[in-house]
Automatic annotation (TrEMBL):
Database matches in Gene3D superfamilies: NAD(P)-binding Rossmann-like Domain
Species, as recorded: Actinomadura chokoriensis
Keyword Oxidoreductase (UniProt): yes
PANTHER family linked: DEHYDROGENASE/REDUCTASE SDR FAMILY MEMBER 7B, DEHYDROGENASE_REDUCTASE SDR FAMILY MEMBER 7B
Matching InterPro entries: NAD(P)-bd_dom_sf, Sc_DH/Rdtase_CS, SDR_fam
Protein name: SDR family NAD(P)-dependent oxidoreductase
Keyword list, A-Z: Oxidoreductase
Length: 222
């Protein structure tokens, strides 16, 4: 049985992807800060739930220990917008940007480093969830977008360095999530996370080459 570790698995895309992989028979380890919501997803999927903050080194160490028996897929999905309402880049406090990077860039890298030996051994895969904000110049999205751009380049280099591990960085597109709502966007007009999760499941099951993918493109090439 294949094992996946999904961060930010209590709601939104993380929950939807956990449901997709559970239906495919994956063994799951999921994390999130909201222990109550996380436990509900664990009950739905049979996953092992480990609540905590991915920016906390002790929590990351616990996650790495939980998959020490073997890991086939790491999904770095947990992320933060930073301060909300989101300020323009010229007014973004540097300390707040550092906090955004701690969750959106440094935590994924630390988890990758912790599980990479096992992924190499099993020829596993890494899926880093990114955003169109990494490549577009949306006003007030500068802090979040900069962190996702860093995650994309980190993924790009990792893919070149690790030929035996599939490394994907994927833009799920707009989704009806609490995060989009917190950003002040009309989340109700966006599609449900289940649509992006189904597209990403195809990416995983097909084991496509390392690279950047958009969920919309994956959904269009069934």
């Amino acid at each position: 049985m294949k094992t996946a570790l999904i961060t930010g698995g209590s709601r939104g895309l993380g929950r939807a992807l956990a449901l997709e992989l559970a239906r495919d028979g994956w063994n799951l380890v999921i994390d999130a800060r909201d222990s109550t919501a996380l436990a509900a997803v664990a009950e739905e999927t049979g996953a092992t739930a480990i609540s905590g903050d991915v920016a906390d080194p002790a929590h990351r160490a616990e996650l790495v220990r939980a998959v020490s028996g073997g890991l086939d897929l790491l999904v770095n999905n947990a992320s933060t917008l930073g301060p909300t309402p989101m300020p323009r880049i010229g007014a973004l406090p540097v300390d707040d940007l550092a906090g955004t990077f701690a969750t959106n860039v440094l935590a994924p890298l630390a988890l990758i480093q912790g599980v990479l030996p096992g992924l190499r051994e099993r020829r596993g895969a890494i899926l880093n969830i990114t955003s169109d904000a990494a490549v577009e110049n949306y006003e007030t999205w500068g802090g979040y977008g900069t962190s996702k751009a860093a995650l994309e380049q980190l993924s790009n280099v990792l893919a070149a360095e690790e030929p035996d591990v599939a490394v994907w960085w994927a833009d799920p597109g707009e989704m009806n999530t609490a995060m989009l709502r917190a950003a002040g966007e009309d989340a109700d007009a966006a599609p449900p996370p289940a649509e992006a999760a189904a597209a990403l499941r195809r990416l995983i099951s097909d084991r496509r080459p390392s690279g950047r993918y958009r969920a919309a493109d994956l959904a269009a090439t069934r």
